[in-house]
Recover the amino acids of this structure.
């Protein structure tokens, strides 16, 4: 699996918004080394999904829309990545795939990957593991 740059950036945005202090778009772009246009697109999508809450004006910026422990990595990936069914052969006629052992194995692997990503939260992927533990027990 390979995630695109926008998905990667969105996950990193959520990781720095975990402290509860509002972070402005220019500050995010600077701290993450990302183009501001990508930060804006990502924040807009994350806000539409309820994962970020934005506030304009003095003291404004973005904060998490829910606790980091309640945001799965899979939910973020699903916002930004096209559905990937892992069909390996690329055949236009998928009827043959129904009886193909390789297709079944790939489908099982895909489900296992999604299950694993659904079980991982933004709190789990924080670099400061002490902070992550505090968020989980809060």
């Amino acid at each position: 699996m390979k995630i695109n740059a926008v998905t990667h950036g969105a996950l990193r945005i959520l990781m720095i918004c975990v402290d509860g202090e509002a972070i402005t778009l220019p500050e995010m772009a600077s701290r993450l080394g990302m183009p501001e246009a990508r930060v804006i697109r990502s924040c807009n999508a994350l806000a539409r999904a309820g994962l970020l809450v934005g506030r304009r004006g003095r003291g404004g910026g973005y904060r998490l829309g829910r606790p980091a422990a309640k945001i799965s990595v899979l939910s973020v990936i699903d916002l930004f990545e096209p559905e990937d069914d892992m069909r390996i052969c690329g055949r236009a006629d998928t009827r043959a795939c129904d009886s193909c052992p390789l297709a079944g194995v790939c489908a099982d692997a895909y489900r296992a990957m999604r299950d694993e990503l659904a079980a991982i939260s933004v709190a789990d992927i924080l670099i400061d593991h002490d902070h992550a533990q505090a968020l989980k027990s809060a």
Q: What stands out?
A: The beta strands are 52-55, 61-64. The first helix runs from residue 5 to 16. Helices lie at 5-16, 25-32, 36-48, 73-80, 101-119, 129-137.
